[in-house]
Amino acid sequence: GAVVSQHPSRVICKSGTSVKIECRSLDFQATTMFWYRQFPKQSLMLMATSNEGSKATYEQGVEKDKFLINHASLTLSTLTVTSAHPEDSSFYICSANPSGRATDTQYFGPGTRLTVL
Amino acid sequence: GNSVTQMEGPVTLSEEAFLTINCTYTATGYPSLFWYVQYPGEGLQLLLKATKADDKGSNKGFEATYRKETTSFHLEKGSVQVSDSAVYFCALTTDNNNDMRFGAGTRLTVKP
After folding, report:
1. Minimum distance, in Å, between the CA of residue A109 and any CA atom of chain B
2. Cα separation, A29 vs B64, whole angstroms
């Protein structure tokens, strides 16, 4: 099946610094990728939809300037958490859909655990 | 808007017990329904899916039937194993929204 990777898998940073998380589709091209946030023992919450070659679409309540998304190529989307604070500590997960069709299976990355001290 | 309501856990069962995890949905349009599983320390994996009413998705002994009349997609397995211990998420997408909405997740623990 399709493979999605994320890097890094785990990152610890100091408050006030910025952290970049990469999401790559390894064996397919994806014009659309999705970024989720998962709190401990809770569900995934969609943060934004990353669109190759255009601006990301953010869900209500997600700060665009805080969570910068860049989808520079058909196989790479990046999420940058700017001026991170302890409340940004979470598990961030990306997904991509090879066909681009909403009703087809999404393939998920293994996630990135961010800890902000 | 689209949403998924899932039976909250945690659920603890003995090996070979019968499993049901309830999932109901609200959607505009015609959703596709999914069950994803998250094993400890791993990312989400597709378990099964159904794309239209009355379809039955099945995999690894798990089954779920897309019931439009009750807007449900309950997950069942006749005999669980210790290796089934994981968190299970019900989810949906629709043609007019290219994203996925998840239920809260149900943590299943199977004891020998």
Report:
1. 6
2. 30
